[in-house]
Amino acid sequence: MKYVLVSGGVISGLYVSSIKIDPYLNVDAGTMSPMEHGEVFVLDDGGEVDLDLGNYERYLNITLTRENNITTGKIYKHVIDEERKGSYLGKTVQVVPHITDAIQEWIERVAKIPVDDTNEEPDVCIIELGGTIGDIESMPFVEAMTQLRRRAGRNNFMNIHVSYIPVINGEQKTKPTQQTIKAVRSAGLIPDLIACRCERPLDKGTVEKIARFCQVEDEQVVAVRDMPSIYQVPILLEEQGFIPLLRSSLRLDNCTFSQLLVKKGHDIWNQWKTLTLAGHHGYLETVTIALVGKYIDLHDSYLSVIKSLEHCAMKCKRKLKIVWVDSEHLESKSSSKDTAKYHKAWHDMCTADGVLVPGGFGNRGIEGMVVAAKWARENGRPYLGICLGMQVAVIDYARSVCGITNATSEEFAGTTGASNVIVYMPEINKEVMGGTMRLGLRPTLFQPDSEWSKLRKLYKDKNGEILERHRHRYEVNPEYVEQLESAGLTFIGKDDQGVRMEIIELKDHPWFVGVQFHPEYLSRVLDPSRPYLGFLAASANCLDEITKQQAESLNGPNGNGANGHMDTSAF
Prior knowledge:
The chain is of the alpha/beta class. Helix content is about 35%, strand content about 20%. The protein is built from 19 helices and 23 strands. Strand 3 (about 40) and strand 4 (about 50) form a beta hairpin. Helix 3 (about 70-85) crosses helix 4 (about 95-110). The chain is globular.
């Protein structure tokens, strides 16, 4: 097994697995606030993990599990459970060796798990160590990594350290990098490659100075400068000889991957470059999407949503512009300051090409989301509702079309007498927050009378079933389904029991779709999420063209992210 230890983002090749280490005491990311931590990413097995796991899946096109995210809470819980069972035979349990050994054993076990359905043990495992060298929280993990380097053996462990090169008065400064490398070395880690984040290409003198003072060769200093798109960063690394350096350092030419895999990787790599460089010269038309949310002060709260829109924009050959609309500002206000925000929010939404309402929790800003869904529905503007976004669309329809004026969700109902068209799922534990939602990969079945559906055509389903990842506590109240459908709101997708509403779509509308699941979690650069693709294509006035392309495409047996992604694991 080959290990690549990094601090920061990375992309690599062969059959690759990845592990993210988060030195916080939480067992997982499920209970963390989006405003503090960014989005919670959900895996097939229902694991609620750090958003970086989403980056790994998107770039490497692999399916990870909750085991690929290590937290201090998980490790300490594991060690304490073992101590309670008597596994340590009465010895004093300490950070070294028990915690550090547990970390290494966890990594070695997970690194060998075959990725997806290949049944192939990965050649390389990328380990991202979160936090900063010197943090108290990270110290057990740093010690474990120094031990793992020795344990793995020569040419089986590579340490990539990411540093920042500031520019002051026009001069690139290397002192921060020198100091951080010194701290890394004093902690026991020896960087084999220094990845320098910078706004502009590194000067030759800067590279030579970093190499000289950090005791590496010039070719071991790689510049990761700002690029027009994050998807062009792998191309930048390739141009600097990053791949030969990896192969040489880890002796990858001796790995078991076949020439067929290498050729396959090159073919997909060419597709990647063609797609990601399409708008390099700025000639693409712009499509503007109004993202109506409640956590917009931290854009990472909607990271997977943003990535899905980017994937679809590249597929549609459009330049993406996201307009961030605070849903609270769509609600009427009294003060002059609030009134200005109110008018600006409505202007931004009404002038956008499409309206997207993503997921979320709590009642803040909900009425703004409801009126956003109502406006898009009544004005023929493409609309996509994700999870909560679907629920507010149902609430609007119940109020505006069905005449249920007090329609709301059980999550928001503050008084008795409200009509809860959205309710708690009966199996949900209301007392415990962590890990109690409906989580992970679950089937959705298109209903027999939904052949007209614009969304269904994009999925290219063979048997009417798709698989998407879920994360929710509430669902459409079954008692109102018949009334809603009689009024024209079609539930084209239901769960495998036929009782849980998964997809809504309006027939006579350019694109009005709501999904209970989170399709953004399975979106890929070369295989965009279907709900997002249809939404963005409709917003860009190219839905018919994209639907035709999807019908002719052979990418994936079902055209569904969960069932048939293109294999890009050979990068």
